[in-house]
Amino acid sequence: MMRITEQPSKYRHLEKMPVEEITAHINAEDKTVACAIEASLPQVNRLIDAIVSKIQAGGRMFYLGAGSGGRLSVLDAIELPNTYGIEKGLVNVVLAGGIENLYLAPEEKEDDTREGWRQLREKDINEKDIVIGISASGTTPFVLASLEECRKHHITTGCIVSNPSSPIARQADFPVEVITGPEFITGSTRMKCGTAQKMIFDMISTTVMIRLGRVEDNRMVNVLLLNEKITDRAVRILMEKGELSDYEEARKLVLAHGGAKKALDYLQSSLNG
């Protein structure tokens, strides 16, 4: 396979550049990320369809990663229960070194070929689920060995990688290869690769939640009432969707029913009463 992610940066003698030149070059490289994702959209779409199908059939989704990509997947997964009101455990992360050690970033755990499958087994992984390996290089031992075990146990797999024809992509039923090219700092895949991974995580999780009915029109009607800002947002959603003009009345309904969606359902049932 071709390790594009390890190819030398086209920018030389960075230590001699003024700040303005460094930031301009980084910005220019970042602009190429969206185009790289656009080229991989057919693969992304197939992966999303597979995730939706698995969840609708009673399964769960697992991100499986190490390094920057794995840590970014944690950020994506932890937002979903609050934003879309899904039950915890529907979208999960298996991280090299464990999520509890996220801040410590134990990079040596990327080479552990047993830990990923052990963590998956602890979560009772089964054929209803789908596991998505995250690896910029496409060769991370932690991810590769875990996907190999998934395939042996007939568990559906996907991946997000940034090199073509990688071993991890070969172990994925639904591979996504987003080729972002050499990094500004040679081999620093937390940069363009990480940006691409974050954008794809947003794309996957948002689209999955929409397809699962957790969004109406363009509103997060199932958002949990965790603070005043979010409660205000839910009240305004109810006012718009329920055609209410009294803020305090709408707020009482939202609080009484635990969210905009349940309050809307109550209003609709009252009308059909």
UniProtKB/TrEMBL annotation:
Transmembrane segments: none
SIS domain ranges (all copies): 51-214
Domain of life: Bacteria
Protein name in the entry: N-acetylmuramic acid 6-phosphate etherase
Presence of keyword Lyase: yes
One Gene Ontology molecular-function label: ether hydrolase activity
UniProt keyword terms in alphabetical order: Carbohydrate metabolism, Lyase
CDD domains in UniProt: SIS_Etherase
Species in which this protein is naturally found: Anseongella ginsenosidimutans
GO BP: amino sugar catabolic process; peptidoglycan turnover
